[in-house]
Structure formats: C-alpha cells, structure tokens
Design brief:
Layout (H helix, E strand, L loop, with lengths): L3 H16 L2 E3 L11 E4 L6 H7 L7 E5 L8 H7 L2 E4 L6 H12 L4 E4 L15 H10 L3 E7 L1 H4 L13 E4 L6 H4 L5 H17 L10
Parallel strand pairs: 1-7, 2-5, 2-6, 3-4, 3-5
Antiparallel strand pairs: 6-7
Helix pairs in contact: 5-8
Length: about 210
C-alpha cells in the first residue's frame, strides 16, 4: 500500500483544516503489535479521523460493500486499508480478512454499533463485533469520536466544517469473558462491555476542548 503515506498526508491536512481534530489518551495506543480500536460511529468522517489523523500506524477497517461500488471513492478507501463486509449476515471472507490483518501485526478499527447513529447518541452494540473480538484475542482499545455527527450526520450530502475529537481509553479487560463458551450470549456481553467503556469516554456537553 505504497499510496498510504501520500493519502495520509493529504487527508490529515484536509481534516485538520476543516475539522480541527484533537486526539486525547493517545498513550493508551500500543506502539507495536496488533490491536483493535473499537469506536462509536456517527459519520462518514469517523474512519478518517480515527485511522489517519489520530493513529500513527496504518490501520485497516471494515466498510459496507456498497461503498466499494462508488466510483473513485471505492478504490481510495481500499488503498487505505478498508475491506468490504456484507451486512446482515455472516460474511466469512470479511472475517478471514479481519483476522489476516491482525495476524500480520497490524491494527484494525471496528465500529461496535455496526452503522451510523441517527441521533448522535450511542446505539445498541452488535454481538457480531463481540464475536470478532472473542476470536481475535488482541488488546481492545475503546475510543469515542465527538463532533462528527454535527459536521456530517447521516442523510446529509456534504459535510460542514467544525471541531472534532477522538478520545482513547485504556484497554478493555475481557479475560473473564474469553474463558466462556463461544456462543451468542458471550459475544453480546463482550460487545456491551466495550460499548460501556466507549460511552464513558464521551466528553461532557459544551464546546470541544482546545
């Protein structure tokens, strides 16, 4: 992915110019090895903010397959590390790519809610994300993205400039759930615990921190 440095420079510059993104808690992000950043999801801006401005390493992320069919946009996100997933079912190829990416030593980003919020508030987490984390057994870093819903909510054609931030928390302890049976109830509890940690990172109401 030799295009990554140039694309990262461009997107970092553009996002900083329009959205003044700030990152907090970066000390919680591992410097080496695979890990998964698990975040809330409010906007199309989220992958760029969390993946290409706040993290120093290239990350991969799952994106709905429909995005890859958009001319120009699809090839760009693929070159940046995205891979398609078919929502509403068990996409074995996406699951394989998810684990291959981690086994290669690279970090990944997943959105535990599965889709963008319509209200700006955190949604019910999907147990499918819990299944991925159960099988991955790598550090899980919670993150809360703030401001992107105001800048580019679902249903709006174009974004508007505004301040945004990403807050990272300490790794979520899941060892007590990893020893349980690999079943839906276990996956749901993992997703719910991670979502709870994400919600606790939400900044208080008011202007974003400088």
């Amino acid at each position: 992915m030799s295009s990554f440095p140039k694309l990262r420079f461009f997107t970092t510059w553009l996002v900083e110019l329009l959205f003044h993104t700030r990152a907090y808690g970066a000390e919680n992000i591992p410097d080496t090895g695979p890990f998964v950043v698990v975040s809330n999801h409010a906007s199309f801006l989220d992958p760029y903010l969390i993946g290409y401005t706040s993290l120093k390493r290239q990350v991969g992320f799952m994106a709905k397959v429909e995005l890859f069919r958009i001319p120009l946009f699809g090839p760009i996100i693929r070159s940046l590390g995205a891979f398609p997933v078919t929502r509403g079912g068990r996409d074995q190829e996406a699951i394989r790519q998810f684990h291959d990416f981690l086994y290669s030593g690279k970090p990944l980003v997943i959105f535990v809610e599965g889709t963008r919020t319509l209200t700006g508030e955190p949604q019910q987490p999907k147990k499918g994300s819990g299944m991925l984390l159960y099988n991955a057994r790598v550090p899980v870093i919670p993150a809360y993205i703030d401001g992107t819903f105001r800048c580019w909510p679902k249903g709006k054609l174009l974004p508007r400039p505004g301040p945004t931030s990403v807050t990272y928390g300490p790794p979520v302890s899941l060892d007590d759930l990893y020893v349980r049976k690999p079943e839906k109830s276990t996956y749901a509890q993992i997703a719910e615990r991670v979502m709870k940690h994400i919600s606790h990172l939400k900044p208080p109401p008011g202007p974003l921190k400088a």
